[in-house]
Design brief:
With 145 residues, this protein is mainly α. The chain is built from eight helices and no strands. Helix 6 packs across helix 7. It is elongated, with a radius of gyration of 18 Å.
């Protein structure tokens, strides 16, 4: 798990915030289909050629992507999130869903060590954790009978 001065909420994107970003980016995509991919999670992994957003010369700078996400957060009135917050959220959700560290790292283009150290957070809610414990307890009780 990653540790630094910011908390999980500051370093990842909540489901509500992600939905707001999805909606506004999808609206933009429908009105300007060549401007931006329809979903922000795609920003983390979708590529055109060798770059995430390719312009007519085959290149776009990371600043363009960061500015896009920043502007969409401002438009929706949510705390400003970085493209890395989207990547951390995508990775954390994949890991919570059981995707192996090798696959998650590969999707994001990291080594497992970098992915686990910098992009993996516990974003699960208490119900999810209680369901895990409940399932383990049921398995134990079956084994005891």
């Amino acid at each position: 798990m990653c540790s630094n001065n910011k908390n999980v909420e500051e370093r990842t994107v909540s489901n509500k915030q992600m939905k707001l970003l999805y909606d506004i980016i999808e609206q933009d995509h429908l009105s300007k289909p060549n401007y931006i991919p329809p979903y922000p999670v795609e920003l983390a992994s979708l590529t055109y050629g060798d770059y995430v957003f390719a312009n007519e010369h085959g290149r776009v700078y990371a600043r363009v992507i960061s500015d896009c996400i920043r502007n969409k957060c401002i438009q929706e009135g949510i705390p400003i999130k970085s493209i890395h917050a989207l990547r951390r959220t995508l990775n954390s959700k994949m890991r919570c869903e059981g995707v192996s560290p090798v696959v998650a790292s590969s999707i994001l283009g990291h080594t497992e060590k970098v992915n686990n150290s910098n992009y993996t957070y516990d974003i699960s809610d208490n119900k999810y954790k209680m369901d895990i414990i409940s399932g383990i307890n049921k398995e134990i009780m079956k084994a005891v009978k």
